[in-house]
Amino acid sequence: MKMTVDFEECLKDSPRFRAALEEVEGDVAELELKLDKLVKLCIAMIDTGKAFCVANKQFMNGIRDLAQYSSNDAVVETSLTKFSDSLQEMINFHTILFDQTQRSIKAQLQNFVKEDLRKFKDAKKQFEKVSEEKENALVKNAQVQRNKQHEVEEATNILTATRKCFRHIALDYVLQINVLQSKRRSEILKSMLSFMYAHLAFFHQGYDLFSELGPYMKDLGAQLDRLVVDAAKEKREMEQKHSTIQQKDFSSDDSKLEYNVDAANGIVMEGYLFKRASNAFKTWNRRWFSIQNNQLVYQKKFKDNPTVVVEDLRLCTVKHCEDIERRFCFEVVSPTKSCMLQADSEKLRQAWIKAVQTSIATAYREKGDESEKLDKKSSPSTGSLDSGNESKDKSLKGESALQRVQSIPGNASCCDCGLADPRWASINLGITLCIECSGIHRSLGVHFSKVRSLTLDTWEPELLKLMCELGNDVINRVYEAKVEKMGIKKPQPGQRQEKETYIKAKYVERKFVDKYSISSSPPEQEKRIVSKSCEEKRLSISKLGPGDQVRVPPPSSVKSNDSGIQQISDDGRESLPSTVSANSLYETEGERQDSSVFLDSKHLNPGLQLYRASYEKNLPKMAEALAHGADVNWANSEENKATPLIQAVLGGSLVTCEFLLQNGANVNQRDVQGRGPLHHATVLGHTGQVCLFLKRGANQHATDEEGKDPLTIAVEAANADIVTLLRLARMNEEMRESEGLYGQPGDETYQDIFRDFSQMASNNPEKLNRFQQDSQKF
Questions:
Q1: Torsion sign, CA atoms 299, 300, 304, 305
Q2: Is the pLDDT of residue 620 over 70?
Q3: In this structure, are residues 430 and 619 in contact, taking their beta carbons and an 8 Å threshold?
Q4: What CATH number does the domain located at 396-508 have?
Q5: So where are the chain's domains?
Q6: Best label site of 261, 357, 474, 639, fewest CB within 10 Å?
Q7: What are the PH domain coordinates in residue numbering (predicted)?
Q8: CB 299 within 8 A of CB 287
Q9: Are 696 and 680 in contact (CB under 8 A)?
Q10: Residues 52-63, buried b or exposed e (16+ Cβ, 10 A)?
């Protein structure tokens, strides 16, 4: 061990010794200040840590209170309880850490300062005292005169005793200094090492705790991702409902009447009315009235029990009241009493009177489920109170879409479990679903099923026509073809687990699809004949100029598919005269029939089956091909790598294009000539399809092998409608890019124009033939 102060120098009491003492004393004084500061900081840290533990414990108790409050939500309650228990453990670990810190830093260093430094100070005082005494003895000894023998001896004796005492005390002081310098290293390092081990134990305990909690947190995170997706979907649905209600509110004050037809609670109509009291003052009070369960009742507050005005509507009549001063009054008269009521407007009065009259009529006929359905259809609450003069071309919502889709065979009950009155639909499959099955379909992912509400969402006309082209019966003949053979029983309503297993097997694994021999291709000779026929037709068209014309026989205006549903060409091509422009058609109807002679789905692979069916506008066969694994973007190498979507364009069906797009067709996939669906629709003059492709994100800047984009083709053909759509879409795109509105649909004018074209293409396609008809005049 290296000595701080040498003992030999101590005996000499040399200047080096004094200098060493001065340096050591200054160092010890500074050490004392540092240690005192460190102890005070440690005490403050411990006090703050204890306050943190108290606050953390209060926070943890708040989490437990929230968990108890969420007792109706098992996931939230379990998670919060587990987290609060883990936080409580961490609080305990923190408490142990602060206790060990207090023992290692505060206690040890304080003891070092109080004990060892105090001994050093005491030794220093004694040394300074004896040093002063020695100095005095030396001075006195030096001052004694030689002739005074007695004083010389006395001074000599005092000096000898003082030197002896000085050496003893100085050696003790030096010893104390060296011991202190050695001990302070061990004490400081010992306390800090103990403090760091306390932290090590704390973090190990926390790591072990959260390692056990980690798998649960990971599972909860995955579940939370699903909850976020569901919450986003619910938010969109709520926003759509909010928008619908807001539009309804702004359209007319009368639309604020709240009404509903619901077999579950029996409510036919409900809303606020003024009721005249039967007392002597004849006061009028505003109450919430409803027609439900064959009774007329009202409430003042929601929690109040309804007051029955009419016990049985079959025994009462309703009539206008024009003989009183108040406006919009009507009277409900029963054999025992009459009730005078006042609506907010004439339209609402008529609605209430009609609702009461209809309820009276249906009350007589109400027998079982059939009568309940009749009640729904006859009730005025199934319709809107908005003016009947509004355009019928607007997007269908709510009950209108529900009634139209449910009228398709099989759609009156859930496609998967059979529950009556389904209010949800899978738009890419074309089926109706109950609310529980719709939730299971959502969990499959949009690449299997896209779910929409038949009552809350807005339905575009082409999408509604798509739903009406398919239906539960058509789809179940494909996806449940082997259910009976396999002895599988469909799940019943309420069997959630069984439903999930069945729906996954049906749509994801496709276990019940009849896997006939579809892998074999048609004979090579047939393939060559079909390919040659198509190639000849394409060559014959390519030789025609924009003004050339083709003679075709009048096509049949109505065709039937396998489901028995009549199909009409969506762009109104059946209404064309026998002479049409070469820019309008690629091939004649007779040739088209010839090309389908070789179509036999039993011998085609799924991709080719989808390809052929897309041209023939046969949605059931297209759905069957997809069920057998057809690639929706399959390219026919024998016919310029055309896709089913391009074939749908050539076939002229807007609904067929919509079906392929809903099932993942690439709207920008092009053939060997560099032409995509938008190119072909522009060449053929199919305005409705052009509008649809632009809405679905088609790239109108793409050019074909001749360097022409769709706008150039439309301008050369002088098709005003398509030029308008393309230029409007391009202008809207440029405007959104300049304003940084990426992902936004565009301004209201752009949306209104495209909405009008969509409505026209689906409901009045003959209006879009003016370009083709005008071309006949020149």
A1: negative
A2: yes
A3: yes
A4: 1.10.220.150
A5: 7-209, 264-382, 396-508, 524-775
A6: 357
A7: 266-361
A8: yes
A9: no
A10: ebeeebeebeeb
SS3 321: strand
Confidence band (pLDDT; 50, 70, 90) for 517?
A: very low
Tens digit of pLDDT for each residue in 128-163?
Answer: 888 888 888 888 888 888 888 888 888 888 888 888
Give the C-alpha separation, 360 to 765, whole Å. 43
CB of 37 closer than 8 Å to CB of 92: no
The label of the residue with tokens 């029963």 reads 334
pLDDT, residue 644, reads 93
| HSE toward the beta carbon, residue 385, CA cutoff 13 A | 24
Over its C-alpha atoms, the chain yields an Rg (Å, rounded) of: 47
Q: What is the DSSP string of 353-382?
A: HHHHHHHHHHHHH--HHHHHHHHHHH-GGG
Cα distances (Å, whole numbers) of residue 308 to 273, 304, 323: 15, 12, 26
Let me know how long the chain is.
Answer: 778
Residues with Cβ within 8 Å of residue 636, at least 6 apart in sequence: 608, 611, 642, 643
CA distance 70 to 63: 10
| 506 φ/ψ angles, rounded to the nearest 5 degrees | -75, -45
Of 689, 682, 467, 429, nearest to 569 by C-alpha is 689
Return d(Cα 344, Cα 348) in angstroms, integer: 7
Burial class (CB in 10 A: 0-12, 13-18, 19+), 216: middle
Identity of the residue numbered 607 = G
765 in Cβ contact with 653 (< 8 Å): no
In this structure, which topology does domain 7-209 adopt according to CATH?
Substrate Binding Domain Of Dnak; Chain:A; Domain 2 (1.20.1270)
Q: Which three-class secondary structure state does DSSP give residue 614?
A: helix
- Rounded mean pLDDT, 493-499: 82
Nearest Cα to Cα of residue 631 among 612, 620, 617, 644: 644
- Mapped onto helix, strand or coil, the DSSP state of residue 300 is coil
Residue 654 CA to chain centroid, in angstroms? 30
Q: Using CA atoms, how far apart are residues 706 and 674, in angstroms rounded to an integer?
A: 9
> Can you give the pTM of this predicted structure?
0.44
Q: Which contacts qualify for 245-251: CB closer than 8 Å, 24 or more apart? A: 248/386, 251/386
Structure letter (DSSP) for residue 559: E
Is the domain covering 264-382 a CATH 3.40.190.10 domain? no
DSSP annotation of 273 reads E
